[in-house]
Amino acid sequence: MKRNLTHALESWIRDGIRAIGQITITPTAQGGYELCHTDDLGKAELVAYTSAEDARALSFFDDANAYRPLKTAPTLKHGWRLNLNTGEELRHALDYFYPAMAALWHSHLQANLPAVPLRDTLNRQTGMYAATKRLQDEEGQELVGQACAASACAKRVLWAFSEGQALTRLTPEKLSAEPRPTPAGIQEIPLLCQEACNILVAACREVVKKRERSQSPPPQQTGSPSH
Ligand code: SF4
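^ thats the input. predicted complex w/ iron/sulfur cluster below
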């Protein structure tokens, strides 16, 4: 599978794909690949890296050195370029920047990427996350409209709210896996979300808990005030 994915990646790039998320991929004359933040294309003063492993550290923090819990948040650090020699190294590096995203696109192209409705994901939660089963439709739709908006996450959302109930607060572009050029006219590998992530599930729990706290009566006073 990994070798297939490397070949697929090399072939997409031969066919003109040049971006994934906030990263631009430029084939080099030596048969390798140069990666940089798309905003940094053409800039000379970039810090040079040469190992796929370097992508791991580059993916952790944003420009303000704040930790990025969601790798697909549009907050990728600027100021670097990463030179890689082979398609294998490219696959490794992209997996650090955007875990599993090339593999999901590969599966999608093979019509083998079933999407899981949010309700199904929540209904199988256990322990402290079982509270998410009590998420109300309207509060859930509102939360998804904020947490999964393009300003918060670069993935395209493939799942429905529930079987037969579409998401209502995201744009049509956000809900489509269709490849389209970036604003700079670059062909990209779309980042796909086929099932709600842990961060969204945790946010669903917070919404439920907050509502239930606000609805619960204040604790009863027992006994008499002491004097
Ligand atoms: S559920 Fe998917 S689209 Fe929404 S924030 Fe998580 S990864 Fe992004």
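Residues 72, 147-148, 153, 155, 157, 193, 196-197, 199-200 surround iron/sulfur cluster (CB under 6 Å).
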